[in-house]
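Exercise: predict the structure of this protein bound to zinc ion.
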Amino acid sequence: MARIAVGGFQHETNTFAPQQATWADFERADAWPPLLRGPELIGGVEGFNIPIAGAVQRLRELGHELVPLAWAAAPPASYVTEDAYERMWTLFDSDLRAHGPFDAIYLDLHGAMVAEHTQDGEGELLRRIRAIVGEELPIVASLDYHANLTPDMAGLATALVGYRTYPHVDMAATGRRAAELLDQLLKERRPVHRAYRQLDFLIPLVWQCTFIEPAKSIFDLVGELEAGEKSHNQGIVSVTHTPGFPPADIAQCGPALVVYGHDKEAVEAAADRLAQAVKAQEAAFAGEMFDPDAAALRALELARTASKPVVLADVQDNPGAGGTSDTVGLLSALMRHKAKGAVIGMIVDEAAAQAAVETGEGNIMRRGIGAAVGYAGETPVVADWRVVKLGDGIFTGTGPFYGGARFQIGPMALVTDEASGVSVVLACRRVQAADQEMFRHVGVEPSTVPILALKSTVHFRADFQPIAETILVVRSPGAHITDPLEMPYKHLRKGIRLKPMGPVWEGA
Ligand SMILES: [Zn+2]
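Solution:
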């Protein structure tokens, strides 16, 4: 039995997004738990599909004594404020000093955190922790699929373990894998060789999905390299590939991979083979996108003969990637083309949601909806909105991505435009439209809707692809710019290509 400290600090930072991540965003609950510290951490994360929940459960099963530090996450947004970062660090700093010594540390990190005062949020956190616990203590961290895995992170952690799915249906499972690796490292006490590689082109999120090629085959290979080599006892203990988070204006933005094991040659060979496999697929990271009007018209045409919903993915206004989840480009197009019965969710507009509560079910409110932040100069959509159903925003997720999540996202409402028959699901806090319960909570059974528009890039596929006739990818206004050529980068490293088969970045 070992004494293992566990904690986490998660943020996915889109440096081009309009809203920063503040301390209040880390403190409060949304789709994920609020700030947790000490003994309350264990029960607070239980049942969620998040890495620390899986790690805690597995480490306990393995008989270890856990020392809970602090854990917090905020919805994807722009830079983590220096204030928020330093407040979180204060908790880690005092808990590490007060509750040590430890035999090991497990950390639940994202890998794409950028703070106002550091480009590498996780690398800086690991550097500070090392300064307290020393160079030798085993530190294993789990990482999001979208980590921009930096050389510092790879160098400072004993081992890093990433998700293998996008939609991320394996978040808790990744925490379990990290726990098992930590347990193995503690038992074996052998030196671990690390092979780290960065790839030289950015991959837009929308083409990173592991439900489709080429990511599907690449991640099959990740699993094979780890399992195959393990079974042949060739000394590989862990293989991680992170396709990266392009909307991050930092030098170490982009895909990377890291392989660990006891046999240096096998580890290096596996890293090279995986890097080659990703490079060989470069041209395959591509697909078709529709502008909002074309998407609305195509959806109407398809819906005439479809037996299941035509799903429109509003991929650029994904709050799970820093979008405001309130842009109205696609909503306006659906209304313009009178897409009767279409439902779009979720539009995050606290004032409109509160107004719906005041208006009451069955009544009509004439007001603007959406564009609360005003991204890209948009203005709210004014119409006669009938308040069809209200909800308190407290419910539990049931899909493969958000299953077990205890949502607390403020008052919600289903409102319908009297003229076009288009409906909107309103909410108060930003969470990605990736679980059918978000719609059922306000009386919509998603499988019966002819056209369903979702503010999500890829995660929606976990729960909605099985009920969809087809999925159209829409390029409507939003802060998660899909085409890296449109992002005003200043800090990328020279020589990286801005997208698959795209031009080399030559500097700002
Ligand atoms: Zn992710």
